[in-house]
């Protein structure tokens, strides 16, 4: 399943740069690109993005208004604030309202792509961990059955107990 991204940015140059880089990330699709608050609100009413990249200053409002709407309606949407105004007061307010990332366009632009890529890979990583956990849990159940089986005359050695203990610690 592809991750849908909404871009809210009034600079055509930044829009193009974001689009060109995001297109290179597998499993991610840009669902909408808008350059003002009104169009962003309309886009959000049509479709909920998985990730939203928001500029702060827009011609008819602020990215903070859009952030508030997104987080009030769907807390699962990852919101990346990408701004030329990285003032601590603005940053604090955005993070307080639920922004997941607050990035300065002039020095942290590349972080957007790391964040989007990371979000894609976290799902794969969690799936791998879950699979490994199931295998280990199955092994533990097998060991537990082996150690409590009254018909089995074999006893478990100290080495087997230590191995089971190490596996539990790994979990």
How does this model look, in words?
The protein is of the alpha/beta class. Helices cover 57% and strands 18% of the residues. It has seven helices and seven strands; from the N terminus they run E-H-E-H-E-E-E-H-E-H-E-H-H-H. Strands 2-1-3-6-7 form a five-stranded parallel sheet, with helices on both faces. The chain has a two-stranded antiparallel ribbon with strand order 4-5. Helix 2 runs parallel beside helix 3. Mean pLDDT is 80; it is low at 120-132, 145-158 and 160-171.
Summarize the structure.
This protein is of the alpha/beta class.
Fold topology:
Elements: E1 3-8, H1 12-22, E2 28-34, H2 37-46, E3 51-54, E4 57-58, E5 61-62, H3 63-73, E6 78-83, H4 88-97, E7 101-104, H5 105-108, H6 111-148, H7 158-170
Parallel strand pairs: 1-2, 1-3, 3-6, 6-7
Antiparallel strand pairs: 4-5
Overview features:
globular; alpha/beta; 171 residues; 7 helices; 18% strand
Tally of alpha and pi helices: 7
Helix-strand string: EHEHEEEHEHEHHH
Tell the overall outline: globular
Structure classification: alpha/beta
Please tally the β strands and state the result. Answer: 7
- Mean pLDDT across all amino acids: 80
Alpha-carbon Rg, integer:
24 Å
* Separation of the first and last Cα atoms: 28 Å
Question: What is the helical fraction, as a range of percent?
Answer: 55-70%
Give the strand order of the largest sheet, numbering strands 1, 2, ... along the chain: 2-1-3-6-7
Major pleated sheet: 5 strands, parallel
User: Could you tell me the strand content as a percent range?
Assistant: 15-25%
Poorly predicted runs are: 120-132, 145-158, 160-171
């Amino acid at each position: 399943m592809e991750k849908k991204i909404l871009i809210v940015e009034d600079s055509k140059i930044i829009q193009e740069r974001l689009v060109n880089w995001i297109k290179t990330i597998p499993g991610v699709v840009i669902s909408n690109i808008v350059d003002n608050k009104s169009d962003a609100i309309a886009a959000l009413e049509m479709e909920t993005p998985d990730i939203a990249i928001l500029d702060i200053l827009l011609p008819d409002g602020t990215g903070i208004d859009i952030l508030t709407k997104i987080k009030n309606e769907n807390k699962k949407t990852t919101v990346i604030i990408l701004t030329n105004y990285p003032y601590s007061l603005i940053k604090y307010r955005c993070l307080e309202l639920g922004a997941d990332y607050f990035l300065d366009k002039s020095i942290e632009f590349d972080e957007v792509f790391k964040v989007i890529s990371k979000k894609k890979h976290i799902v794969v990583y969690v799936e791998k961990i879950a699979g490994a956990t199931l295998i280990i849990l199955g092994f533990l159940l097998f060991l537990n059955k082996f150690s409590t089986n009254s018909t089995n005359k074999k006893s478990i050695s100290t080495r087997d107990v230590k191995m089971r203990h190490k596996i539990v610690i790994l979990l």
